[in-house]
Protein: DCN1-like protein
Organism: Pongo abelii
Amino acid sequence: ADDVVGPEGMEKFCEDIGVEPENVVMLVLAWKLDAQNMGYFTLQEWLKGMTSLQCDTTEKLRNTLDYLRSFLNDSTNFKLIYRYAFDFARAEDGVSDCELLAGTLAEQEKRTSAA
């Protein structure tokens, strides 16, 4: 469907904002957009999420990445994001991506709790 950005589009998008597709910030973004499928954003998810983030340009989104990463430093949001990733892993065949992200989150948690 034309109103869905899939894996190829996501790679291009990641390139545009200067992050690797497997970067944990992409998981936080998917969580903020309430994306229902890993590696895909629907037009509706995108528009609603970008509006809530007040991002209408690639540059504004690039400048929002640190804000998105900061959600991982808050234990309540961290748990919500971790749960979101876990649910993705159960619902999708993309378990390897989810395992990678879960590992990244676990590392983040170790760093956060050690600080």
